[in-house]
Amino acid sequence: MEKPYFIIDFDSTFTRIEALDLLAEIVLSNPREKEHVLQQIQDITNRGMNGELDFRASLTQRLALLRAHRDDIGELAEQLKTQISGSFLRNRDHIAALRDTVYVVSNGFLEFIVPVVTDYGLIPKHVFANEFIFDTEGYVCGFNTESPLSQTGGKSKIIRELNLRGDVYVIGDGANDLEIRQAGYANKFYLFTENVERETVKAGADHIAPNVDEILYELKMDRSLSYPKNRIKVLLLEGVHSMAVNLLEKEGYQVEALSTALTEDELCEKIKDVNILGIRSKTQVTEKVVSSAKRLLNVGAFCIGTNQIDLEACTRQGVAVFNAPFSNTRSVVELAIAEIIMLVRNLPDKARAMHNGKWEKSANGAREIRGKKLGIVGYGNIGSQLSVLGEALGLEVYFYDIEDKLALGNARKCETLNELLSKVDILSLHVDGRSENDHIFGAEQFAQMKDGAIFLNLARGKVVQISALKQAIESGKIGGCAVDVFPKEPKSNNEAFESELIGLPNTILTPHIGGSTVEAQENIGQFVPGKIIQYINTGSTTGSVNFPNVQLQAVQKAHRLLHIHHNVPNVLAKINHILGEYDINILGQYLKTNEEIGYVITDVDKEYGQELLDELRKIEPTIWFRVLY
Ligand code: NAI
To answer: Which residues are annotated as catalytic?
Structure first.
């Protein structure tokens, strides 16, 4: 197939900005003069817009006002070299390789366009633009009015005169680019929207191209990114934090964000062509939902738990799931610290009495936390962080965990739960929600504790027998408690809260808000997109709850073959056999498996053909295969 010709616009397409705006900034570096001249330029522009001045007249007047010097134009060219559009810059080598069939056609000026595009690797003779006229002192005093490009319809005239034999594709952001297509001198008009989006031009475009990656991908040409990011569709539900929306949009993905959850049927319909799904705790990602998704790569749980997601179904279909396991750790710990101080001070009752008009000034039962013994059950993310902050406040920290954990600071490990219970003045639960932990705390455990000890549960409601806790408080065995999580919690703020703990002395009850802070929401909104973007860009799965965890650097000077397969023997051997047959140079290879799937990552030299990819895709237990660069 013959290579097509590309006609590329300069201002706001090849470069991110309008060159004459930048020239005005360079020339008018004196602020007082600047204000005066800019006002006049604006007046001329307005007159042009009102139809009182044509394009040529307005250009003439604006240039006359600017009084740009030859040196300013040189400076402009230098600055424009740093303002090349991101996707043009990324694809520099690929576009420069097409230089014989690439033309830059612009209503700007040769004097600044030629140095920029030549530096980029394009051919100076392939640039068509206006030309400045300078006076004897080197100031711009006009432009070559003979050039068609100083007139409306000039671009079409240039293309016609070029008489190109083959397909002609125009890439630009403005009506004058669309005109070439409408005049019949181009086969296709790609409306380039990376820098500006002009609604009026959209209707006439053959293809909306948010970047050059999209154009090269559409034309199946060599490019710097394996897949244009604008093609990646993201669906965010349940009012995921705006930080996440911004990060994913900034990455170039197409993001749709809804404030509510969707029902199973609604989600099955909507998820069909979605690549990334973001949810919080309400959306149920069932097997039916997962199998309705034909292009799903990731589910991001913008919360801690992943019970709402059928992880096995995701794994079987090669969907990597990420969550935010420690984005709200600090929030839970701060609440625990606050509650420990309040309970040791007997504040809940004192505060309640004040609201009832009672002044109970007394030091009885009010203590400092300094020097008290804090016991932590479950020394994970939250438990260990509480250990650090607790110690900083002067608490003596002891902990018990079923796993061997590194004691932080001066914290001391207890060998059994009973040893811990009998030792401490304050006990805080931070175990996870595995089913074995149901009701691990009951009458027997409270009996082991010191008389008057303080008890906190900010972990999971079902871990504690509520009636036993109630009894322990009523008998005075436990001197006070803070409970944030309950075996049965209202499903929404409209439902009433019921619990045997209501009304008990020195008892703080909170509606499962341990992790609910503005900062935690922001952290989650940043953390989960970070994991997803890293996975899309590098294949890294660190922190995935269902995929074998592999940490990978960005691909450099290589192509990365990512292969997810059902975990059966010999897949790596089959992959390498095919690579060997095609004589492919392997630069690096990793294999990691879990019970369900295997993940093979192979970095190879760029030189290979489509047949190799077809062969690799055919390997028997493949779930999916993708190439990354
Ligand atoms: P994690 O998984 O990092 O730590 C849990 C630790 O508990 C692990 O070290 C584990 O070995 C240990 N463990 C499990 N069972 C145990 C047992 N029977 N005895 C002793 N140790 C045991 O979890 P993370 O992030 O620290 O969260 C802790 C708890 O806090 C979880 O239940 C979580 O659901 C809850 N949570 C509550 C929030 C709230 O809003 N109140 C917010 C965030 C988490």
So the answer is: 460, 489, 512
